[in-house]
Amino acid sequence: MTGSLSVRNLDDDLIARLKRRAARHGRSAEAEHREILRQALTGEPEPSFDDLAAEFRAMTRGRRHTPAEALLREGRDER
């Protein structure tokens, strides 16, 4: 199954540059857009869950955290 992506609010100059680049490569603007995304994202390694979790912990370091059991209890008490 293939997906679809709409990109809104692009600068007119950027669209014109995309169309010129597509013409140089003998592709439609849509095909060029797909190729640009493919090249940009296939060379980027997908971070592991452990790396993402470590990044999240670093972002939230020093913040006050509410224990899950307190949140569950609060949710039950609201019913």
Automatic annotation (TrEMBL):
Official protein name in the record: Antitoxin FitA-like ribbon-helix-helix domain-containing protein
Pfam families: FitA-like_RHH
InterPro entries according to UniProt: Arc_rbn_hlx_hlx, FitA-like_RHH, Ribbon_hlx_hlx
GO biological process: regulation of DNA-templated transcription
Top-level taxonomy: Bacteria, Pseudomonadati, Pseudomonadota, Alphaproteobacteria, Rhodospirillales
Domain Antitoxin FitA-like ribbon-helix-helix, first and last residues per copy: 4-41
Organism of derivation: Paramagnetospirillum kuznetsovii
